[in-house]
Amino acid sequence: MVEKDVVFSGKVRHLGIFDFKEFYRFCYMWFVDKEYWITEKNYTEKITPRGKEIEIEWVAMRKISDYFRFYIKSNWRIIGMKEVEVEKDGKKETLDKGDVEIRVQTILEKDYEHRWEGNAFYKFLRTMYDRYLIRGRIDDYESRIFGEVEEFLAQAKAFLALEGKH
Question: Theoretical Cys-Cys bridge with 163: which of 18, 51, 92, 145, CB 3.0 to 4.6 Å?
């Protein structure tokens, strides 16, 4: 069985004006640039009297070695999204307005290829391997994935803050 260690959970929230299509593309490209393989598990869109409600679930994975993999799950929820017309650099532009929240959970997966699953003795060896032989490497990988997701959240927050200034 894959051993999953939750390293970090966080979120970014923005209430105001933003460009949904650009923000979506920005976030997607951030993961692609970091060499993550991204899967959109869910995309639902509902029209309500308050505006559009959008829910998105992404799973991003990056192989680190035959034993380790970074796994990032992000859940988007956008409530009350409506198109608004704003003036940007003297030109009228159509953007979106609403409540955006992205929750991110970061996981370090160990033995994701199930190589240590053969029997109880292999599982025991894996436990000893993780706990005593490669503890420093595990700490290093946890620190790296934590830093990457912190950067993602900071970049997403900055993007939304810049887009919202009109």
Answer: 18
